[in-house]
Amino acid sequence: MGMAARRSVLEELGHQVLTSGTASEALELCGKHSFDVVVTDYKMPKMNGVELIARLRKLHPATAVILISGFTDTLGLDEASTGADIVLQKSNNEVPQLIRAVNRLLRKQQQPAKKPTGSQAGSKTEKRKTR
Question: Any idea what DSSP says for residue 3?
């Protein structure tokens, strides 16, 4: 499945999608726009997906990233080694996996931040002198 097909699937689900032909163009778009989710391939000319993710994290650390590759097993690509939030293997199941991944990341972003629990979290201790 190519970029145009992924775009079409996501747009049919109501998502607004911008695409770029290179990782450099993607970084340029990310400099001009804010994105909820970035979907990237691993294999691209001049800069691979892992390099793109590293640069994107410097610009927008909170942006969710999905890395798609046909080499996940061969290269040992996973969330820990790539910096992506989700890594997907190109396969016959790619479309439903991509849809679930995008929806899961968007739901995660919409959840209110949980307050830390515990006796020390968010507390401030003051010592007062009394006379």
Answer: H
Q: What is the C-alpha separation between 1 and 94, in angstroms, rounded?
A: 8
Residue pLDDT, tens place only, 56-101? 999 999 999 999 999 898 899 999 999 999 999 999 989 999 999 9
- 108-130 pLDDT, tens digit each: 988 765 555 554 444 333 333 43
Dmax (CA) for the chain in angstroms is 76
Q: Which two tokens stand for residue 12?
A: 């049919």
Q: How far is CA 9 from the centre of its chain?
A: 18
Place of tokens 């410097």: 58
d(CA 52, CA 115): 32
**pLDDT at residue 113, as a whole number:** 59
Q: Give the distance, in angstroms, between the CA of residue 80 and the centroid of all CA atoms in the same chain.
A: 13
Residue with tokens 């695409």: 19
Is the CB of residue 99 less than 8 Å from the CB of residue 107?
Answer: no
The DSSP secondary-structure symbol of 37 reads E
